[in-house]
Amino acid sequence: MLGIVSSLQQNLLKKSGDIEGIGSSxxxxxxxxxxxxxxxxxxxxxxxxxxxKIFKKDLREEACQDIALIFYLNAIxxxxxxxxxxKKMFESVARHGPGFDPxxxxxxxxxxxxxxxxxxxxxxxDHKTYWKKYGCTIMTDEWTDGRRRTIxxxxxxxxxGTIFLKxxxxxxxxxxxxxxxxxxxxxxxxxxxxxxxxxxTDNAANYxxxxxMLMKKRTKLYWTPCAAHCIDLMLEDFEKKIPLHSETIAxxxxxxxYIYGRTSLIALLHKFTKGSDLIRPGLTHEKPAMGFxxxxxDRAKEKIQDAFRGDExxxxxxxxxxxxxxxxxxxxxxxxxxxxxxxxLHYAPNFKVDWExxxxxxxxMEKIVGDFEIIGKIDxxx
Length: 382
What we know:
Layout: H1 2-16, H2 18-32, H3 37-73, H4 84-96, H5 105-134, E1 136-144, E2 150-158, E3 161-169, H6 177-191, E4 196-201, H7 205-217, E5 222-225, H8 227-241, H9 243-260, H10 263-272, H11 290-307, H12 312-330, H13 333-341, H14 343-346, H15 355-368, H16 372-381
Parallel strand pairs: 1-4, 4-5
Antiparallel strand pairs: 1-2, 2-3
């Protein structure tokens, strides 16, 4: 067996012309007496390392071709190669060594599926422990599938992270306030009322009404609309109510339609963007923004004011649009409490507490804790 491997290695090197070069170099130095036994040993080790490197490179290329073929034949998304599980899989196979017998269809479908379901349930138990200790937020994500059904995903967020809870076909539910209320109430019951601090949904009128009904029944939790959706609506209001914004956005849409209506321009666009979409990527962080919304909204207004050099007549309409959405949809005690309890902001040198913020914090404590003596102790420790 060793002879076969050695012969294969030599054949690989002959293809690259390295064997003859190494051999002639050894012969010349031996005849001239310029090489000692120690140097000869080092040269042999070096040449062996070169042989092994080329041999492994060829083996890797062959393995990669086979792996890539699996992706192509089974329509596996290329993005799967970015998964940590994908890399871990090959590390496990490499530790096993030659002769690894891959799992069969039945093993993947039954044996290992059961195993990973059990592991997922154990992980879920860890999350439930955090829910009981720290509380959690139920979040909804509504989308429409290819059959025009309204699907509602429910997720639960806690300090340990966000997990998917379940999906519901809400096509016959999302138009009726009473049905939305029952759906949300059932999910709160499933997670545990004592664990839920907050529930976030779309900010449509029917969801708002259902959320208010839920807060009357479940008195220790808050319902709030999705902050991102509210900010989108603010931007839409800028377009609708400010002529300059409306004209600018309309012009941008005409340019976009003109480009994407002509294949030659699309090809030119892809040439100069190297196949990418014409967007500017933004830095995002996978973390909740609750503790920052209150402060960031104030900062946004200040930046708008600075952009107009303090000319109130120029920025006041923008402020009014922001305040209108903020007061109706985002101005909740929970956001004020999030600002007050955020350690990054709370212990900053320029941190200031006005009555509105403190009132929001106290309202939250009244709702969640209820005991004013305990609330006082909590406030004293901050």
